[in-house]
Design brief:
Blueprint (H helix, E strand, L loop, with lengths): L6 E7 L5 H11 L6 E4 L12 H5 L11 H12 L4 E7 L4 E9 L4 E6 L6 H4 L4 E6 L2 H14 L5 H20 L8 E4 L5 H17 L2
Parallel strand pairs: 1-5, 1-6, 2-5, 6-7
Antiparallel strand pairs: 3-4
Helix pairs in contact: 5-6
């Protein structure tokens, strides 16, 4: 059964802060509403035609790395209960695949990404904005493990990227966006009290939207 409108929840935070874990936890605890999760990482600009040397120097933590127009269009389509064809991004080749991910609309849409509060057009359509706060050392360790195991990157390249772009971009763009949050969660998905509070809040809003 569709509500009068979907509820759009934004989850922002630095790389490795636990955004995805919180999104998955919320999906599990609110599964009665068939929530969908939209990852900002799916909307990186396609670099398939760029030389490898250029790709190696690309700054994937800068707002200009994302296809904001498509990202916002898809979210607005979902808010109008229209399905979308989401890009699938290959982090090994830094390019989009030819196939897409078909996403059906839902009463609850959870969006997560490092820069989802950076763009005002996106901030303005969120119903709830959550910022995940986490110690920088812990975030780096999580990113290191992820990029080695899931994205096939070398230890040296991960460290170089973190020092040259990830850390400075976090300080310039991600951390300041905390001021736009309605709720700040320390310790990420380990903060049970914060998670339960958010779940209760979302349930109340969704009941009111019926």
């Amino acid at each position: 059964m569709r509500n009068s409108k979907p509820l759009l929840v934004g989850i922002c935070g630095g790389t490795g802060s636990g955004k995805t874990s919180i999104a998955i936890t919320l999906r599990e605890k609110l599964k009665e509403y068939n929530p969908i999760i939209i990852h900002q990482d799916s909307y990186y600009l396609d670099e398939k035609d760029l030389p490898e040397k250029i790709k190696e120097t690309s700054n994937y933590d800068h707002p200009e790395a994302f296809d904001w127009d498509l990202f916002i269009k898809h979210l607005k389509d979902l808010l109008s209960f229209k399905p979308v064809e989401q890009p699938i991004y290959n982090f090994h080749t830094n390019s989009r695949l030819s196939e897409t991910n078909h996403i059906e609309p839902s009463n609850l849409i959870i969006v997560e990404g490092i820069l989802v509060f950076q763009e005002k057009r996106l901030r303005d359509i969120f119903d709830i904005k959550i910022f995940v706060d986490c110690d920088s050392d812990e975030r780096f360790i999580r990113r290191l493990k992820r990029d080695v195991l899931e994205r096939g990157r070398s230890l040296e390249s991960i460290i170089n990227q973190y020092l040259s772009t990830v850390k400075p971009m976090h300080l310039q763009f991600v951390e300041p966006s905390k001021r736009y949050a309605d709720i700040i969660i320390p310790e990420g998905a380990y903060n049970i009290v914060a998670i339960e509070t958010i779940v209760s809040r979302i349930q109340r809003i969704l009941k009111d939207l019926k």
